[in-house]
Amino acid sequence: MPAFAQGDQINSAVADATYTGRLRNQGLALTTITAASVSLTRASGVVLANAASNAITVTLPNPANAIGQKLMIKKTDSTANLVTIARFASETIDGTSASLYLINQNESFTLTSDGTNWFSLESAYGATKRLCRTLVSLTAVADIPLFTVPAGRTARIDKVILEGQATMSGGTSSKLKIGVTGNSFNDILGSAGITFVSATGTTLLAIGQRIDPLDVGDVPASVSVGPTGSFAAASVIQADISGTVVTAGAIYVELWGNLF
Hints:
The chain is 0% helix and 47% strand. By secondary structure, the chain is mainly beta. It has strands at residues 9-14, 17-22, 30-33, 37-39, 46-49, 56-59, 71-75, 83-86, 100-102, 108-113, 118-120, 129-137, 142-148, 155-168, 173-179, 194-197, 203-211, 229-231, 236-243, 246-259. It has a five-stranded mixed beta sheet with strand order 3-5-7-10-11, with no helix packed on it. Strands 12, 14, 17, 18 and 20 form a five-stranded antiparallel beta sheet that branches. It has a four-stranded mixed beta sheet with strand order 4-6-8-9, with no helix packed on it. The termini are far apart. It folds into two domains: 9-120, Jelly Rolls (Sandwich), CATH 2.60.120; 129-259, Jelly Rolls (Sandwich).
């Protein structure tokens, strides 16, 4: 009796019916990768990418050889090193020629092929991801680096989330702007930034309160918001604290978006 491997083409005649298809098993192969460049095959199955030591580029197999196969790729480490999922050749992934990126720990993509192109099943290309979460002190005028766009990439920022506590002292306003030095930090929140306007001694953010500038309904009346932005490779996105500094307080600044 011949031995078959997963993905082998078989033809089987049973009674008066004929079946033509590819042999599948119930389980998927499991592979852990750490090398900077790895080419997958149709039988790769579940791929755990540990990018703790270096960024990883995972190249998909020829879609013509992986019809209906499931490939699951997951980033397991907590570093800032990217896991890039690249095309085999000129095919598309969800209709685009761009690669996919795993940015944060435990993010994953599950993909399948129709013989010509690749499609994501359990994640969506272009989905907003958290690019950073940085603790920013509000007690001194300063510029605090938040996120550096990796070489060869472009970052799109979709939203900013603030979380923390701040209390005003000695004035009536304190301003937070987010962007790059060359544009006076006006890129993401506009020239107005996020301005906290309050009487001295008033708590501006309660502990754990979140502000998402893209969802106007969640923004207190004392906070002004502006547009989002996109940034070229090597751009250093910073938080700029100006105006009247607070007596006490720090906030977590989260940037959400994607890399291209």
